[in-house]
From TrEMBL:
Residues 332-445 form the Mannose-6-phosphate isomerase type II C-terminal domain. It catalyses: alpha-D-mannose 1-phosphate + GTP + H(+) = GDP-alpha-D-mannose + diphosphate. CDD domains: cupin_PMI_typeII_C (cd02213), GDP-M1P_Guanylyltransferase (cd02509). Keywords: GTP-binding, Isomerase, Nucleotide-binding, Nucleotidyltransferase, Transferase. The gene is epsM. Its EC number is 2.7.7.13. It comes from Methanoculleus bourgensis. One of its GO terms (biological process) is polysaccharide biosynthetic process. It comes from the Archaea. This is mannose-1-phosphate guanylyltransferase. Belongs to the mannose-6-phosphate isomerase type 2 family. The keyword Transmembrane does not apply. Residues 2-263 form the Nucleotidyl transferase domain. NCBIfam families: GMP_PMI (TIGR01479). One of its GO terms (molecular function) is GTP binding.
Length: 450
């Protein structure tokens, strides 16, 4: 079975933990592995690494590559030039993974869900695979509560391995959700399984505008295709929709209340990732890099990162997307990035910034290097903390070791590389009239950035 993993996302629903350039699927929310890495490992239950393809965007492709390398899984990565919702992503992915092999069964998985990959999970995929020649199969999770944040599926006629889909219904109010559960409805998991030829044929019937768009090269196709979800574009229109029940712990971690639900609790029902001392404090979610002390508070979400703190009642914490939107509208980079920013060559962390200076900690993994570049408006001082740096400044190239430093004048072509076997870490002090990230002219780049 081939597997497509969708790894886009806007990073707004768990702000400030997630950002547009670092959405929730890449964050180790519940343990040391990200949701994306957990999804890849689940896929290995029914696909080999060579049968798994990741569909992501330009901003996340190097993050995907690094997280795959961290778990030793060499999967194919397909890059969308722009996000157009799930149907174009799946259509593009299905065409690519079956281009050489022809028709095949394809599983489609979101990368930002937390799922228990138990025996029932594996059995559900075997049942779906048996239905996939004749039906587009969606997995329906058996509800554990009258949840108002999920779409629901009403099963119809039995097919043995599953059921025909009688109807897809939108997120209900609490009373309606309770009635749905009593009537045997299932949560719509957003996971699918189908025969590639059947899926492509149903796209011809239900979403011909997407098919026409992909008659052109990928860049042109994404300009032309409408933004459509697979639910609206195909599943709600096709006569070949089936549902297979899934009995597994499943959570889309769509808000902080959902994160609270899956984390272990202390005796006073606080869910804590980090260090917390609480006096008369209960049922709180606390995620922080430093000590959080609370007195007399209950049912709150307290989420701290290096550059932002969220304090909200847990039942209102789903509104954090409004904060991210407000930051984007005023051009605030905190909607996009954390203080630690991932780049294809490694990462940097903003330590301090003033009107005419910026201080960063720069980390370069072994055998990687930055572009050959120049800045018009700033000079840079580099001090090596750990590892060995190969420095090119103008016509000179030399090595710097622990405690050694160098100076890069404004307007000088330069490059930083790590030729060693250990990570390189250095402190960079930028000084100049402008220290923005767009003050860069690249002459050579291993990652083909403009």
């Amino acid at each position: 079975m081939k597997t497509l993993i969708l790894a886009g996302g806007s990073g707004t629903r768990l702000f400030p933990l997630s950002r547009e350039h670092y959405p929730k699927q890449f964050i180790p929310l519940v343990d040391d592995e990200s949701l994306f890495q957990k999804t890849v490992k689940r896929s290995l239950l029914f696909s080999s690494p060579q049968e798994i393809a990741i569909v992501t965007n330009t901003d996340h492709r190097f993050l995907v590559r690094d997280q795959l390398a961290a778990i030793g899984c060499d999967c194919r990565v397909l890059v969308e030039p722009v996000g157009k919702n799930t149907l174009p992503a799946i259509y593009y992915g299905v065409r690519e993974v079956t281009r050489e092999d022809g028709s095949d069964t394809v599983a489609v998985l979101p990368s930002d869900h937390l799922i228990s990959a138990n025996g029932s999970f594996q059995e559900a995929f075997l049942r779906a695979e048996r239905l996939a020649k004749d039906y587009l199969v969606v997995f329906g999770v058996r509800p554990t509560s009258p949840h108002t944040g999920y779409g629901y599926i009403r099963p119809g006629k039995s097919l043995g391995e599953g059921s025909l889909v009688d109807a897809f219904v939108e997120k209900p109010d609490p009373e309606t959700a309770g009635r749905y559960i009593a009537d045997g409805y299932l949560w719509n998991s957003g996971m699918f399984c189908f025969d590639a030829d059947l899926f492509l044929a149903e796209c011809e019937t239900c979403a011909p505008e997407v098919v026409r768009a992909f008659e052109h090269p990928v860049e042109e196709a994404y300009d032309a295709t409408p933004a459509l979800s697979i639910d609206y574009g195909i599943m709600e229109k096709t006569q070949r929709a089936a549902v297979v029940p899934l009995d597994a712990d499943w959570n889309d971690l769509g808000n902080f209340d959902a994160l609270y639900a899956v984390l272990p609790k202390s005796g006073d029902a606080n869910a804590v990732r980090g260090e917390h001392i609480g006096i008369d404090s209960s049922r709180n979610l606390i995620v922080a890099d430093r000590l959080v002390a609370t007195v007399g508070i209950h049912d709150l979400a307290i989420v701290e990162t290096k550059d932002a703190i969220l304090v909200a009642t847990r039942d209102e914490a789903q509104r954090v997307g409004e904060i991210a939107k407000a930051l984007r509208e005023k051009g605030d980079s905190r909607a996009l990035f954390h203080t630690r920013v991932h780049r294809p060559w490694g990462s940097y962390t903003n330590l301090e910034e003033g009107q005419s200076y910026k201080i960063k900690r720069v980390t370069v993994p072994p055998k990687r290097r930055l572009s050959l570049q120049m800045h018009h408006h700033r000079s840079e001082h580099w001090v090596v903390v750990t590892g060995c740096a190969e420095v090119t400044i103008g016509d000179a190239t030399y090595l710097l070791r622990n405690g050694e430093s160098t100076f890069v004048p404004a307007g000088t072509v330069h490059r930083l590389a790590n030729p060693g076997l250990l990570p390189l870490e250095l402190i960079e002090v930028q000084i100049g009239e402008y220290t923005g990230e767009d003050d860069i002219v690249r002459f050579e780049d291993d990652f083909e950035r403009a």
